[in-house]
Amino acid sequence: MSDSLNPCMTCGACCAHFRVSFYWAEADDAGGVVPVELTEPLSLLMRNMRGTNDRPPRCIALQGEPGSCVSCGIYSQLPSPCREFAMSGENGVWNEACDRARARYGLPALFHPSLPDMTESYGIAGASQPAEHVQSPG
Ligand code: SF4
Ligand code: SF4
Fold first, then answer.
1. What is the pLDDT along the chain (138 residues), one digit of tens a residue?
2. Nearest partner of 15 among 77, 83, 66, 78, judged by Cα
3. Which domain range does residue 77 map to?
4. Ligand 2 geometric centre to CA of 62 (Å)
5. Residue 92 resides in a domain
């Protein structure tokens, strides 16, 4: 059993920091997989996860509080921004947006190219975890 934890499992900051918007046809009433009742119209062609266009934003599918034990209630039905958003440091690539969202909740940055690699201490170096999260700035 691994003694390291995926930082996303105790974070969830990106789910409560950005607007999560995507092409309307990703919703399951149009042939996609995202439960339409968890979305709302954003524009003629776009929808967003319900709650992420609020102030402050918080995705309706987020379970738990950011910075504590969290999970996504629709992990197998994610919209594209959530699938494509990479945890900072994943595969050695800095994701400034991930670290910015974490900072909002007082969580430390996971990675920065100008600093020593911090991902080792989190056990994520070279991880091939599916990208779980986000989005466009709200
Ligand atoms: S991708 Fe980044 S901000 Fe989102 S849950 Fe994972 S560590 Fe937190
Ligand atoms: S991964 Fe996406 S759908 Fe799931 S809680 Fe986060 S923002 Fe919402």
1. 444 679 999 999 999 999 999 999 999 999 999 999 999 999 999 999 999 999 999 999 999 999 999 999 999 999 999 999 999 999 999 999 999 999 999 999 999 877 655 544 444 433 333 333 444 443
2. 66
3. 7-122
4. 6
5. yes
